[in-house]
Design goal:
Elements (H helix, E strand, L loop, with lengths): L1 E5 L10 H20 L4 E5 L14 H14 L8 E4 L9 H12 L11 H6 L5 H9 L14 E5 L2 E5 L19 H10 L6 E5 L9 H15 L3 E6 L15 E4 L2 E3 L7 E9 L4 E7 L15 E9 L3
Parallel strand pairs: 1-2, 2-3, 5-6, 6-7, 7-8
Antiparallel strand pairs: 1-10, 4-5, 9-10, 10-11, 11-12
Helix pairs in contact: 1-2, 2-5, 6-7
Length: 314
């Protein structure tokens, strides 16, 4: 099985020359590789749009158009094989909303993993992310969840994909481990439904290291009984610096995103990865957009191969 993993596209309302070049070269690269060997799944782990300036954020149509181009370039027509989770840019933000979410966070019930004021939390995703999924997926939309659920899943033969909304409440960038998912209440039933899967791919925008300690311990308790006979992967984005993709003893971490440090110094360099499972190979690619940046190894379309057929820790 071959998975294409993309994250942090940060699509803008007005695509500049650099943005257009990134996307065009990505499409060309995927088309060339899809001829070689079919992609089985695409995972897109959040921050589909750039919403630093709300008035400049793109609408649903602009982002859907990019997703359709990616799917076409990767030669995937079945929407059920394209897996999307929201990032913090894909929710409604702003001072008023952050104040509401701060109150929600304060009233979180850690032992039981239950949130209060769930309607306010769902409202954060009704402006962009949920309409995006409705338009992109149509009748195959996995995010048609009820008011008591924040996460969802898709079962594909021997593989199960769990989609976590890691942006339910705002993540405080001052701390690395304050992320709340409601593991004990909202995630538990999804993990319990994976017992017949050979491989389980958990998709979230944020890395597992951002989970609050109690949340991560609860997740480990849920997964460890199954991990002896099943392979668990955590696919995420939000990589705004070079990190080692260290996993846990019960789950393997696979992270891509936007890495700071282009030749101009103040722009992000998008990454994507191709995983061959279970052949245990991972290829990570980073885009070098500037002509005065000459990578040592290049591919058609301007992508630099950072790692080639790198063996995982498995």
């Amino acid at each position: 099985m071959r998975i294409l993993h993309i994250s942090d596209l940060h699509i803008k309302k007005q695509l500049g020359p650099r943005d257009a070049a990134v996307l065009t070269r990505l499409y060309d690269f995927l088309k060339a590789n899809a001829k070689d060997r079919q992609f089985d799944h695409i995972a897109i782990t959040g921050d589909l749009r750039d919403a630093k300036e709300p008035t400049q954020a793109p609408g649903v149509d602009e982002v859907v158009a990019v997703l359709e181009e990616i799917a076409s370039a990767a030669n995937i027509s079945e929407k059920c094989r394209i897996h999307i989770v929201p990032g913090n840019h894909d929710r409604t933000n702003g001072v008023t909303n952050e104040q509401k979410m701060s109150k929600v966070k304060d009233r979180y019930d850690p032992p039981n993993g239950i949130f209060t004021d769930t309607e306010e939390m769902h409202n954060c995703f009704r402006e962009f992310f949920l309409p995006l999924c409705e338009k992109f997926y149509g009748s195959a939309n996995p995010w048609q969840t009820d008011e008591d659920s924040f996460h969802t899943m898709h079962i594909d033969s021997d593989d199960t994909f769990i989609f976590l909304n890691s942006c339910i409440v705002s993540i405080d960038r001052k701390f690395d481990n304050d992320l709340l998912l409601g593991v004990n209440f909202y995630v538990r039933p999804l993990i319990e439904m994976t017992k017949d899967a050979k491989r389980v791919f958990i998709l979230a925008h944020h890395p597992i290291q951002n989970l609050a300690t109690a949340e991560e311990q609860c997740l480990a308790t849920l997964i460890k009984p199954h991990s002896g006979r099943q392979a668990f992967y955590w696919l995420c984005g939000d990589a705004h610096k070079d990190h080692a993709t260290e996993g846990k003893d019960y789950i393997r971490l696979r992270q891509v995103g936007t890495v700071m440090g282009s030749s101009k110094g103040n722009e992000t360099t998008p990454e994507f990865a191709i995983y061959d499972v279970p052949e245990k190979k991972r290829r990570l690619f980073r885009f070098v957009p500037h002509l005065n940046c000459t990578p040592t190894t290049t591919h058609k379309g301007g992508w630099k191969r950072v790692f080639e057929n790198r063996l995982s820790e498995e």
